[in-house]
Amino acid sequence: MVEALSSPRLLSRHGIRLGRAVKSLNSQRDEFGEGESAVNRVRELVKLCSDWIKGGLSGQELIEELEEECGKLGLSEEFARRLLGLMLDEEERLRGGRPAPSGLKLREFASKVQELQRMGEKVMRLELGEPDFSAPPSVVEAACKALREGYSKYGPATGIKELRQAVASKLSERFGLDLKPENVVITAGGTFAVYGSIEAVTKPGDEVVVIEPAWPLYAHQARWLGRRVLTIRTRFEEDWDPVEMLQEKVSKLTKLIILNYPNNPTGKILDRGSLKAILELAEDAGAWVLGDEVYMDFCYKDGFASVLELPAERKIMVNSFSKTWGMTGFRVGYIVSDPEVAMKVARAQNTAMTCIPEFVQRAALAALSDEESARRNIELIGERLKILYEELSRSKLIEVKPPEGAMYIFPRIKVDGFDSWRFAWTLLEKKRVSIAPGACFGEDYNSYLRISAVLDGEPLREACRRIREAIEEYS
Amino acid sequence: MVEALSSPRLLSRHGIRLGRAVKSLNSQRDEFGEGESAVNRVRELVKLCSDWIKGGLSGQELIEELEEECGKLGLSEEFARRLLGLMLDEEERLRGGRPAPSGLKLREFASKVQELQRMGEKVMRLELGEPDFSAPPSVVEAACKALREGYSKYGPATGIKELRQAVASKLSERFGLDLKPENVVITAGGTFAVYGSIEAVTKPGDEVVVIEPAWPLYAHQARWLGRRVLTIRTRFEEDWDPVEMLQEKVSKLTKLIILNYPNNPTGKILDRGSLKAILELAEDAGAWVLGDEVYMDFCYKDGFASVLELPAERKIMVNSFSKTWGMTGFRVGYIVSDPEVAMKVARAQNTAMTCIPEFVQRAALAALSDEESARRNIELIGERLKILYEELSRSKLIEVKPPEGAMYIFPRIKVDGFDSWRFAWTLLEKKRVSIAPGACFGEDYNSYLRISAVLDGEPLREACRRIREAIEEYS
Predict the structure, then answer these.
(1) Which domain holds residue A88?
(2) Distance in angstroms (rounded) separating the CA atoms of residues B45 and B63
(3) pLDDT beneath 70: ranges in chain A
C-alpha cells in the first residue's frame, strides 16, 4: 500500500507530501493492527457499497435498521441518513441518472421569444407566470420614498418587523388566527421562501415529495440541495387529486411534502377535506408540509383552505407579493411557520444573501394596504381565465377543465403522439403565440399546454384562435 | 430481521406498510443469495465505517486510493469524494464537533446596541462592516427612475446585460484586460457572490480553505453547503502572511482557496508576488481561487493585485457595490470568472431566488459612473484609518499595524487573559462604544479587536480615547 503511493504518477503529483503521507498511513496501520491498514478497509468498504448499490436498494425499509446499527456503534442518525442518501443517489446515477429537467428550458424559450420581439416581430406571450400588470403606483412610490429616506442599510435576515407584523395581522384576520411577527420571515420572493424552507426542515439525503404537474423549481431546488425527490403524478382523469397517491407513497423517509394550491399549472384548488387528510398523513409520517400558496388570492371557486387554517404541527406556508400586485421583479415574499422554523429560514437567508433590501420591504408594506389594486388584478385574471376556458372548449381536439384558481389553464391536446415542446416551437414560428409546453411540469404531461391568463380579452381570444388552428394543423 | 420490523413500535408507526416492507426485504434477500440480505450488508457496512471513523482518517492521502477503487467497481468519483467527506464529517462530530461560530453572534451584539440606541442611549458604533455614508443621490434617483419606468419584472438570473457590460468594461480598463459581459454575473451582494461561487466550483465533501482571521461567513457558508473547511491561521508576527502555511496545507483534496485582500479584519494587502505564488500553488493542486475583493477600492498602500490580473485558469473575483458607494442595503455585487463558471453561479442564483431586482441593478449602473462619490468615500475612510492608527498607537497596551486597506483596524491587546467578547460587552456597558471582538474572526484572535472606520474625526478620536481607557481598566 505504501508502494502504491510511491507510484510515479503519485510521486510527480504529490512528491512533496509523500513523506508525510507514508508516515501517516503507517501510523494508521498500527492503529488498526497488523495487516489491517486504513486503505484495505477503504477497499472493503467500497466493494461493499458497490455490491449493495448494484443489488438495488429499498431505502424506505432500511433506514430504521441503519439508524439502529449506527446508534449501537456510536455513529449519528445523521450519518446513517446521509449514507443512505448517498447510496440511493449513486444507484440512481448507475441506472442512468435523472431525467433532464425540461422545465428549466422554459426561460431559454422565453429569451428566444424576447429576441423575436426585439427583431420587431409581434408575439402574443402567454408562456410565463408573470402578470402583465405592473406594481401599482402606491407600491412604486413607497419604494422611492423609502429609498430617499435612506432605508438602504443592512437589515435583519428575518425582514423588518413592521412588515412581519403586517403579514401576521392580515393572515390572522383572514383565517381567524393569532399569528405574531415571530411566525413570519420576509424572503427574496416565493423562490427563496421554498429554497429556505427546504433547507430549514430537511437534510441532505432526505426525501422531498413533489406533486406533479409542478413548478419545475421544487424538484430542482430539492435536488440542488442534495435532497432526494419522490414524485407523485396526479392525473387529469382523477381531477388532479393527489390524496390517494400520497397515502401510498409517503413513508418514514419522507421529510417534506410540497403542496401548491391553487395550482400552477392546473389551476386546481384542493378542498379542505383533502388538505386535512394530507396534513394528517404527514403528521403520522413525521413529515413537514409546505403549502406554496402564492396564488391564494386567485380563487375562482369556493373550498380553498390554507395550511394555516388546519391543525398540524409541522407546516410552512409560502407566499409572495409577485402575483397579486404584479411585483415579480421586486423579489419579495414570505414564509409563515412556527418561530423555530422561521428562525431557520432566516438563517438560511442570512447565509446566502445577508438580508433583502429594506426599501423593497417597505414597498411590500404599501402593497398589503393597497387592497383595491389587488382586487382589480384578481378580477382581471378571473375574467381572462373564463375567456381561455370558453375559447379552448371550442375545439374537439382540446380537453379542458374550468379553471378553479391561479392564473393558468392546462388543456390536454387529444392528438396522437403530441409533443408539447415541438408544438410550442411550431406555434411560435407559425402563429407568433408563445405558451409553456406541458413537459415543463413533469414527464407525464407532454400532451398538455400551460397558457397564462396574461393578455386582455380580445388579444386573448385571438391567441386562442391561433392555438386552436395550430393544433388542427399539427401532425 | 423481519422480526425486528414487526416490533410493536414499528407496527404502531408503520403498521399499514408492514406487509409491503417484509415482502420487499424478502425479495432483496433473494437477490443477494442465501443469508446475504440487504440488511446484513448494511450492518457490515456501518460496522466498517464506524471502525474506520474511530480509527481516525487521513483523508488527504486516501482520496486517490478511494477514487481508484470506486472506479474499478463502477462507482463514480463523486461517490468516493462524498463518502470520504461524510466520514470526515462524522469523525469531526465524534471528536466533539465544530467550534461554535462566534462570528455569527456579532449581528446579535449589534441588535443589542440598536436596542440601547432606541432606549435613548448614545452609542459610538464601530462594530459593523457598514459605512456610515449612504448611497449617493445619483444612485437613489436612478433606482427611483427605474422603478417608475417599470423595470420591476423578472429578469435574467445572470443580471442585466447593460450592467454586466459596464462592469466588464470598467475592470478591463483598470486592469488592462478584455472582459466580456459573459464573464460577469450580478449577484445579491458579495454574500451571494461567495455562496454561489462555492456552489459553482465545489461539491459536498470538498475542502474549502479559509484564511483566518476571516469574515465569519466564508466558513459558515462552506459548511452550510456541506463542504469541509480547512483553516489557515495567519499571525500578527508574520505580518498576516498566508503563503507558507498555504504551501504546507493545500492538498489534492483542496477544491477552493478563499482570499480576501484588502482584508477584513486586518486591512492587509497581499502583494503581487505572494498572490502569484498562491495562484501557482492552486493551479498545481487543481484548486480554484476566489478573490473576495470587495475592498479593492480601499487601498492605502501600493502593491495590491487583483486575481484578475494574474494568469491562472481557475479563479473567481468577487466584488460588491456595498462598500465603495455605501449601498449595503441594496444587495448588489458581482462575480467575474470564465463564462462557464459565471453560468454556474447564475444557475445557483436562479435556483435560490430567480433573479435580483432590475431597478437595483440600474442603481448599481449609476453607481459605476459616479466616480466622484466613490473617490470621496475612499478618501474619507483613509483619513479615518489614519486617525484610528494614531489614536490606538498611544496606548502601550495596544499593538497595532498601520492599516494598508479595507475599512478596519485590528489591534492586538497586550493584556494577559484578554477576552475579546467580555471586553466588547464591558466597553459597551461602561463606555458606550461598540466594537467587534477579535474572536469573531477565528479562534486564535481572542486578544484582538476589530474597529471599523465608520465615524468622523472628532467622535472617532473620542471613541479611541474610551477604548484606551477601557483597556487600561480591564482586568
Answers:
(1) 36-97
(2) 19
(3) 1-65, 97-101
